[in-house]
């Protein structure tokens, strides 16, 4: 079963690959593009404006993401500042301890070189042998280097985060500026749409698909229909009206009014 599926997948892939290189693929892409463009043309300006306002509103989500990241980094910066202050104080403290122990060890070693025996070294209130004193000094040097290394890391991290914060803050300001510009641009577009709709309403050549346009179109059709019917009636009346006889005189035509009998025309006259 799996082998059959693999064969079908391979054959299908080869068929798609072969189809992509043919002119039919170009026809399909062209047709899909025309469908998309036709669909976009059917979208009214009002719907498109609402869509654009929604896209601009979505920019607020991007701004919120930037603000959240910015706030987190600023909080981290505050923690790093406290940590740097603590490490700086600790470095100073360990440094003083290291210097004191170094001085005590050098003094003890000088006594040994001078020939003294059973020389002890004093660190604070404690006495140690020279060997233990050297170990204590070595531990102090290690602690000092560890503090120094961590302090350098904290300062480097602080500088790196500050650069990121500066960039994010510029992004936030730029996003707000862009949002304002886009809002103004969309308001201008909506103003143009409303002006065009007003112009279309005032014009006898309605070019939109509003109810006003449909009413105007219906009125124009009915006027055309009545004009045709009126012309048909006039043509029919003209075709059935009898023509006046050219043999009647004025007295004959006026006889119904004057009471005079029409003259009798003799045959042959």
Number of strands: 2
- Averaged pLDDT, please? 80
Structural class: mainly alpha
For the termini, the CA-CA separation is 119 Å
Query: Can you tell me the overall shape?
Result: rod-shaped
* Beta-strand residue percentage: under 5%
Q: Give the C-alpha Rg.
A: 52 Å
Major sheet characteristics: 2 strands, antiparallel
Q: Which stretches are low in confidence, meaning pLDDT under 50 for 5 or more residues running?
A: none
SSE order, one letter for each helix or strand? HHHEEHHH
Keywords:
single chain; 269 residues; mainly alpha; two-stranded antiparallel sheet; 6 helices; 2 strands; rod-shaped
Description:
By secondary structure, the chain is an all-alpha fold. It has a domain at 64-164. Helix content is 82%, strand content 2%. The chain contains six helices and two strands, in the order αααββααα. Strands 1-2 form a two-stranded antiparallel ribbon.
